[in-house]
């Protein structure tokens, strides 16, 4: 093997090819993040979600206790084992989220053109004219004429399950509002969003820190979704906190952009974060609807240029209660893919929706159809890497073919024990568009001049053959390091 920039290898012979009926290893280049909850936490349903295309499981701590989420993630592990599908774990923080406190859990009807008082006194009972909230500073943050929105789980904009309020009076700590539309608050958790108003709460709260230090450490989370990221300092603070736990020093931080402050400081946030989640539901309150898609396009483009994953939310809301998306939603998914989004995040659709598996499958099919419409004759890039950085750099430039990241584990020690790294790097590729990880045998180094590289390449090719994504006569591009040189090899396969 020579240390040249481009080597054209002799054709390698592959003994057999799988039948076309085998499922495609790459259903879509764009990844799917699924939120696991009451309707999607059994081993059977999670297994079906994995088979349908979910590659990242999101755990939203805005609701449910750690014990509930632990049972769910234990089921996820059983599903991963049974399906042999790799899946990463994302912890979504609560952050400075304002919530209506309804301890009775009774439905609360709100009538248009009547008044309701928002009070920080959580000892009072929620009713049609009084809503306790979990924030004592609202009266200092708002003024007459400000808009407040209350929605279930995620903001749906539905005329029956969410409500628009207009501030008419501030009385000590209470805020009096005019109800703009009739609605019924019929569940335990309703979140409250004040349009274009700074909420004086920390981005990473004490409750978030408690969850991260216990549940997050116990489960060695791959991603932290930082809700309501407003400044670059929020990311730095979260990273410093994660660094105090040895099991989380590789955890990536995704900034969730969901209000005007995050929009204003987007560029500096992008520099600090490992990825971006564009939370379009909340953004639709701070921005007119026509402005949200413009921000989406600009933000995704900037993420693409920086080589950092961009995740888009709120694409098939109607599938929370229906088997099929609307035509507009299907177009929205396709546009998000064409814009360059790395992943689609499903929230309420899989958390409490009636059809979590079908939703993941439908979104995956739309993503795959977009890919089929724009792709050229497919081939594969195989990249050998230890940190995953080289593979992510390749994926940054959006090649039309999938990138197989063969992660070679590295041996390290803390003076007390030896451990292999590599699992984090492999799983964290699961949110990057077009990047598909394989974890190699640690006996095969990523940088070598001996036959080890050829051996691990054969393993990768055999896996490709068995999975059906490498066929006879395909041309494979292989990127690896040989000694101090970076080498690109082109391998053309025979029958």
UniProtKB/TrEMBL annotation:
GO molecular function terms listed in the Swiss-Prot or TrEMBL record: ATP binding; kinase activity; magnesium ion binding; potassium ion binding; pyruvate kinase activity
Top enzyme category: transferase
Key word Oxidoreductase present: no
Domain (Pyruvate kinase barrel) ranges: 30-360
UniProtKB keywords: ATP-binding, Glycolysis, Kinase, Magnesium, Metal-binding, Nucleotide-binding, Pyruvate, Transferase
Pathway connected to this protein: Carbohydrate degradation; glycolysis; pyruvate from D-glyceraldehyde 3-phosphate: step 5/5
InterPro entries per UniProt: Pyr_Knase, Pyrv/PenolPyrv_kinase-like_dom, Pyrv_kinase-like_dom_sf, Pyrv_Knase-like_insert_dom_sf, Pyrv_Knase_brl, Pyrv_Knase_C, Pyrv_Knase_C_sf, Pyrv_Knase_insert_dom_sf
Ranges for domain Pyruvate kinase C-terminal: 368-483
E.C. number: 2.7.1.40
Tagged with keyword Ion transport: no
Cofactors required: K(+)
Reactions listed under catalytic activity: pyruvate + ATP = phosphoenolpyruvate + ADP + H(+)
Protein family membership: Belongs to the pyruvate kinase family.
NCBIfam families (alphabetical): pyruv_kin (TIGR01064)
Name recorded for this polypeptide: Pyruvate kinase
Gene name in the database record: PK8
